[in-house]
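Notebook p. 47: complex prediction with NAP.
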Amino acid sequence: MKDRKLAVVGATGLVGQTVLKVLEEKNLPITEYGFFASHKSAGKKIMFLQKEYMIQELDEHSFDYKFDFAIFCAGSDVAKKFVPIAVSKGCIVIDNSSYFRMWPDVPLIVPEVNFEDIENHQGIIANPNCSTIQAMVALKPLYDTYGIKRIVYSTYQAVSGGGMSAVTDLKKGIFSNCLPHIDVFLENGYTKEEEKMINESRKILRNPDLKITATTVRVPVLNGHSESINVELKKDFTLEELKQLLQKAPGIIVKDDSRNAIYPTVLDVNHQDKVYVGRIRRDFSIPYGVNLWVVADNLRKGAASNAVQILERLL
Ligand code: NAP
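Predicted complex, structure tokens below:
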């Protein structure tokens, strides 16, 4: 086996731990691993592929070890400081933070949607926001077949989307409530999460003028994001043909039988890598409108599995 070394940065966090789980399931042709986190976790022991590893504190010399690849799961500040160091030592980085996502020379990749954009990467590949990833998997087949005029996103996002500390929110402000507030508020009244969904969708679909609006809401759900997506298509469609298109598309499972009250929920999709689509119905208020209910595991397809899928294709 060719000698290939992988570093996971933020290995103790929610996304990092899920990356480890997905890597164990896939057992990729990687010969050596290094696991990094902050000084708080340094020295902690973890079991991975039946071997004991010690979590190392990330510092300026961590990448002197010549890792070929790194998956960063440690937030924007860590990415800003350490990703350029890793790249300067010849490492290819897949970053889960939002820091590089909108940089023009950084590909923003959902493998089922735009893997070809990875071609001219300069060492950094960005993983999109969790709510963007599942929306893109569901919308790409419609975009390619009918064209899209406008998208309205309304999300119902789990607390695990906010990391380890946010999970404790279930016991605090979010308990028994829905908060239309994810990430910080911007001058224009939107939240940064809403802006991310809008801008990242436009970048991935290579359509900077696409009309999109979004309302992103944190709900008292532990894991799994649900999205109501209203789409105005450019061409007419039949529901049957549209459902078949989604059924054949990569990464999607259609679970849609309203007569028998069958639709996807987070409890069905957790621990899975597919994006589930249901409640597929016409929007009768416009000529070519359709409504979708799109559900996925934010820690897996929304972060870890998407990153590992990218890595797998690079190996
Ligand atoms: P998290 O649970 O809070 O984990 C953060 C990780 O970063 C921990 O392993 C932490 O290590 C590590 N870290 C913090 N400061 C560090 C430093 N100075 N040096 C090295 N490691 C450091 O957060 P998360 O939810 O896993 O999110 C990680 C990233 O993925 C974020 O950028 C987030 O926006 C993005 N993301 C998250 C989701 C999601 O559903 N949660 C989805 C998509 C993208 P310690 O344990 O030592 O503190």
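Notes: The pocket of NAP is lined by residues 9-16, 36-38, 40-41, 58, 73-75, 78, 96-97, 130, 160-161, 163-165, 298-299, 302-303 (CB under 6 Å). The first helix runs from residue 14 to 26.
Next step: compare against the earlier run before touching the bench.
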